[in-house]
Design goal:
It catalyses: Hydrolysis of terminal non-reducing N-acetyl-D-hexosamine residues in N-acetyl-beta-D-hexosaminides. Helix content is 48%, strand content 10%. Helix 2 crosses helix 17.
């Protein structure tokens, strides 16, 4: 790892100085403050965040979410489980606006081609998207999601600071100390979260919670916090704490891990036995059990030691058995993109795979403008023919709604007062 120190280490120190000079060490994150949800533009930039994820708080969120879900018909329940990508940049085209009116997705995910613009333009675009979905979907705003990992994965244009690659923090830990590196991770994550929350982003499809090894390093490159299991576990938690403090819901990825194959093009296989897999999953387990991590993204990898017949994202043994049962995860299970080669290799269309994932225990599925109608129709069709139970769909929607309540995106409907 010494070869990376000069580049990553100085990149990290420079970015820390920029952040601290702009924000001021110890000041409250811009646009976000603890406290109850205020009335007004729910989920808009500056919306107050309702912190707290202890057992009693989360039980209350789930109860409030159940009340909201009980007021939704099948169409709105099916919309809540969709995490939709958009084709547009800076403005909503007539086609995309019509799509969101018809299918008010539970979340919208944005990429570089959507966000490569000045901050004011990005803020206005995100607000337009959120408001359109809210007006069309029972007043429930969508999660506004982005992959904000740092390093190689930076989706924003000018004016938004780029976080260092995860590998830079392992370099810092080796050069200085693990304690200093973990402090830097949490502080930079908090400052960056405040910056993107001010734009309207509320969900981060990060961090990568995979321990670097000889197999996955060719796929992950600098996106992992390194080869040391203990440091990676602590670093993932530090990143999530920092983001959470500023009101950003993190989705740790890609459970349970990856092999040397890129799932975008082919089917990866994790051939390790269950004891080794459990060690690999410790960063996820720690974030789940100690922080009540709001989301976990599941990869399309095959894990024969757990389920020799289905991709992890389609497997009840992985989702309901391992992630929910063994690790006690109660948040949103997000299935990775079903347009990837790892799924098509199994002979499933994105629509069929999305239904299978929901049946297996996923709560949100990724869709694109070209597939959203087919996926949405497949979910409703699966409900009608009882392939997908209404109880399972409502449970998935409740988990999405509970995290929206937790992060200050919706005002709960009091029980008995629809």
């Amino acid at each position: 790892m010494g070869r990376c120190i000069a580049g990553h280490f100085w990149e990290l120190l420079i970015l820390m100085l920029v952040f601290l000079s702009c924000t001021g060490k110890g000041t409250a994150p811009v646009g976000v403050s603890p406290g109850p949800v205020e009335s007004g533009a729910v989920g808009g930039p500056g919306q107050k965040y309702l912190p707290g994820a202890d057992d009693a708080s989360y039980a209350r969120y789930r109860k409030e979410a159940a009340v909201i879900a009980s007021l939704m018909d099948d169409r709105f329940l099916a919309s809540q489980v969709l995490l939709a990508g958009l084709d547009n940049k800076n403005f909503l085209s007539m086609d995309i606006a019509a799509m969101l009116r018809k299918i008010p997705a539970g979340g919208i995910m944005f990429f570089k081609y959507n966000l490569d613009a000045e901050k004011d333009m990005v803020r206005s675009f995100l607000e337009d998207c959120s408001n359109l979905v809210a007006v069309s979907g029972c007043g429930i705003v969508p999660f506004m999601a982005v992959d904000h990992e740092g390093g190689l994965v930076h989706r924003f244009g000018p004016g938004i600071e780029k976080l260092p690659a995860a590998a830079a923090f392992w370099d810092l830990a080796e050069a200085e100390s693990q304690a200093a590196s973990l402090e830097a991770i949490e502080e930079l994550a908090s400052l960056s979260a405040a910056e993107i929350r001010d734009l309207g982003i509320t969900m981060n499809l990060a961090p990568v919670a995979e321990i670097l090894n000889d197999d996955n390093k060719y796929f992950l490159e600098t996106r992992s916090y390194g080869p040391d299991p203990g440091f990676t576990e602590a670093a993932v938690s530090a990143f999530i704490r920092g983001m959470d403090a500023a009101g950003i819901a993190c989705v740790a990825k890609h459970f349970p891990g990856n092999s040397g194959e890129d799932p975008h093009g082919s089917l990866p296989v994790l051939r390790a036995g269950k004891p080794v897999l459990d060690e690999m999953a410790k960063p996820f387990a720690s974030a789940i059990q100690n922080l009540r991590c709001p989301g976990v993204m599941v990869s399309h990898v095959m894990v024969p030691a757990v389920d020799p017949f289905r991709n992890a994202s389609l497997s009840p043994l992985v989702l309901d058995g391992w992630l929910r049962g063994d690790l006690g995860f109660q948040g949103i299970i997000v299935a990775d993109d079903f347009a990837m080669g790892a799924v098509s290799a199994s002979g499933l269309s994105p629509a069929s795979a999305a239904v299978e994932a929901l049946i297996a225990g996923a709560d949100m599925v990724m869709v694109w403008p070209r597939t959203i109608d087919a996926v949405y129709g497949a979910i409703l069709g699966a409900l009608e023919d009882e392939q997908l139970s209404r109880r399972r769909l409502r449970e998935a929607a409740e988990r999405v709604l509970a995290e929206k309540i937790r992060y200050g995106l919706i005002i709960p409907v009091p029980e008995g007062n629809p």
